[in-house]
Amino acid sequence: MARVTALTRAASAYPTGFWVLWWGTLLNRLGEFVVPLLGFYLTAHAHLGVTQVSVILAMLGLGRFVSEGLSGPLTDRRGPAFTMILALSGGAVMILALSFAQGFWWTAAGVLGFSLLSALYKPAASTAVADLTQGPQRTRAYNLLYWAINVGAATAPVLGGWLAGRSLRLLFWLDAATMAAYALLLTLLYPRAARPAQHAAARARQLLPRDTLLWQFCLASLLFGLTYQSYKLLAVVFAQQGFSAAQYGQVLAVNGALVVLLGLPLGHLIARSGHPRWQALGAALLGVGFLGHALAHTLWAHMLAVAVWTVGEIIAYGISKTIISELGPPEQRGTYIGLVGSMAGLATLLAPLLGGALLQRLGAGGMWVVIAGLAAGAALLLLALEGRVQGRLTRRRSSAPA
Questions:
Q1: Is the pTM of this model over 0.85?
Q2: Segments in 274-332 forming alpha helices (H)
């Protein structure tokens, strides 16, 4: 009974709208089958070449780069619920269309269309969390959502692989069904409280804010993202070093397991102070972890490297969302979140290209050293911005309504 009471108390600490987001996110991520298995589908089922598959996968990053930057202003004008429902319902339609796409050009167009629509979701969801919470609760809320995302991310590829043995097209239909179900959940249950007098003010502001601190923060986010997204080169390096696909899966599973185990306790620890320095520490650990791959030649050494950069990822994630949600004025919250999110999309597009070029010129060791240097640059820039960021956060929090 005491345990039930504690769970009820913990659940009631967050508004209903947040739990609609949480359960919808978990449902959607558990059904995210297409993107993790897209490369396999294009190679084994669509019979496309390596270059064609690479270009199509790059469309995911291109779509995210464009769409997240546009999602923020749309969210500020129409509200998070409208943008999330548009992203989920539009993404569901595009996934269904993609299941019927034939040939390189139609498939590339379908993937780009899917990415352009579905990527509208992330800035809107982050804005929704910020609208629903405040203070240390906001950081904890972001980490709860991050935990749900990673539970789904760890489960969906395994379940999707099993379902693919029955029907590859079934993956597309089930993925679309979970997106549509989440959109319906938002339509029926998400509160439509007005964002006070913000829409008119937001329209009067520029699409790209003239805020030097924002753009410096975007640069740090890009450097961080280029490092993190370079984990995709691990598969190539593992093949070169003679490891099997199963061993690669085991090493990457360390990331998901640690996020599930450590995401909540670390997130709650960070929420107690909410200091920007946590993000610089996360970037530094990310760099140390990727540098570890340069020195690793055994499976256990690579696992240790993944463990280190995963801790950095966990530390940086929740606090970065909180910082950017409070960096700008409330009426431009979505715009600020979307611009930083677009840096992650740009990193998704550029990291495999940069990593591939470095791997060819410098070899695996040199590539990892350069990539670790990008994370070090992010950490140093975040430290240099720390005083200004903390000062602005203090002013925003002191002027926020109780």
A1: no
A2: 277-295, 299-327
